[in-house]
Amino acid sequence: MLREIIGIVPKRFAFAFVSLLLVAVPAFSQAANPYKSQEVSESDGIPVLIKHLPDWESYRSTLTFIRDVNSLKQALGERPVFDLIDFSAGTEAVTAPYDAGRLLIVEYATPQSSVDADNKINDRLAELGPSANITYRRIGNYNVFVFDTTDGDAAGALLDQVKYEKNVQWLGDDPFLLRRAERAFINTTADVFVSTLLWITMGLGFSILAGIGTGLVFFRIREQKRRSMPTFSDAGGMTRLNLDGFTPDIVPKGLLGD
Q1: Model pTM?
Q2: 10-residue mean pLDDT series, the chain (258 residues)
Q3: CA 114, CA 55: separation in Å to the nearest integer?
Q4: Across the strands, what pairs with 145?
Q5: Residues 6+ away with beta carbon under 8 Å from 67
Q6: CA geometry: angle at 222 spanning 219 and 224, to 5°?
Q7: Bridge partners (DSSP) listed for residue 198
Q8: What residues does each domain of the chain span?
């Protein structure tokens, strides 16, 4: 009986320990990662949207990750464009204070939603005019705002630092792999053909120029040598070979004088 009790206790203890781990590990993970996002980094669990803030690590303590309108208004107060941002379809946002103004990046779940919001936001900003102190730009699938701007150039430079970067990974075979390989082969072949044709053309042109230059140099050298030689002339047949003894001598009187 005692042996049976001793054998049962470790089993119950092990079962309780495993159950405790199953409950504690998810709770610890949620506590370690306070952000709930549809797309997080595999290395540290931080939402990818946060990492697209300019120099995000320096603003890690002051940034705010947003998933609803109430959190948006708590972070930035009432703004004349917040009624155009719809968080019902998985929209996420992040905001942080910068010297150029308060930066807000809004990411919609689909490009169509981002385009629709972009049209509405541009219409609203056109109605408000420059007095709203809002600089806005659509970057990829991001709708990016800079609130409370005092320098338009500084706000534009801040928006230039926001990059929309997405990596698409196929769970199975990539259906576009063959097409990309074919395109790469065509581009490589075209580059090789153009490079070869260019080098051949350059070689022919260089050969022609080198031939012309060599010919001119050779002609000039021959001309200089010819000019340096003494002048020779037979004066219309003054020097002749009288081999047969019948050729009459040239009368000196027929020659021109000096």
Answers
A1: 0.53
A2: 48 52 45 52 76 90 92 92 89 94 93 93 92 91 92 93 74 76 91 94 94 92 82 57 65 57
A3: 24
A4: 104, 136
A5: 36, 87, 91, 92, 93
A6: 110
A7: none
A8: 48-160, 171-227
